[in-house]
Amino acid sequence: MTDAPQDAVRDAVPDEVSDEVSDEATERVGSDADAPDAPDASEGQDAAEGEAEDEDEAGPADGPVFEAADRRGRIVADAEGVRLSYDEEACEFRWDELAAVESAKGRFGKRFTVTVHTPDRRWYPIDLLAPDRGRIAAWEAELDAVLDAYFDDEAP
């Protein structure tokens, strides 16, 4: 077996980079031989720190958030937009993708319906069953607060 392909790669890579790569490869080979299925601990810590930095950069939304769910469906509306999920199906909309958002409560019972309308005249309704009638009124108030904060109904 010849080392021609490896020699060609080694010649194409600057010396200081190839030294770093070979040192890392040697360290990984040594740790892989000890525990083949275990991930490198420093890599896991670096990944966790990177995820924490991403969360800090995005930051939690300071504005209102609406969240309602029952055993089959879920509605979340926040600074990012509106997300609907029902059983295995899910869809999400940014605020600039929406033409209207309406809510309705059932005349009798504990049904709460939110319908998302898009500019291309499609609509996506979702029904949730509230634990009690009082919860429906609270959901309506929370949804109104989110819509007032984020939804620009003056957009063309």
Descriptive account of the structure:
The protein has 156 residues and is an alpha+beta fold. Helix content is 42%, strand content 27%. The strands form two sheets. It has a four-stranded antiparallel beta sheet with strand order 1-2-3-4. A hairpin with a 3-residue loop joins strand 1 and strand 2 (73-78). The longest helix has 20 residues, at 15-34. It is globular. The model is unreliable at 16-39 and 41-60 (pLDDT under 50).
Mean pLDDT over the full residue set: 75
Strands, total number: 7
Number of helices: 4
List the secondary-structure elements in sequence, H or E: HHHEEEEEEEH
Give the structural class. Answer: alpha+beta
What is the topological layout?
Layout: H1 4-12, H2 15-34, H3 41-58, E1 66-69, E2 73-78, E3 81-86, E4 89-94, E5 100-105, E6 111-117, E7 123-129, H4 133-150
Antiparallel strand pairs: 1-2, 2-3, 3-4, 5-6, 6-7
Task: Kindly summarize this structure in a few lines.
The chain is an alpha+beta fold and 156 residues long. Helices cover 42% and strands 27% of the residues.
Q: What attributes characterize this protein structure?
A:
single chain; 156 residues; alpha+beta; 4-stranded antiparallel β-sheet; 4 helices; 42% helix; globular
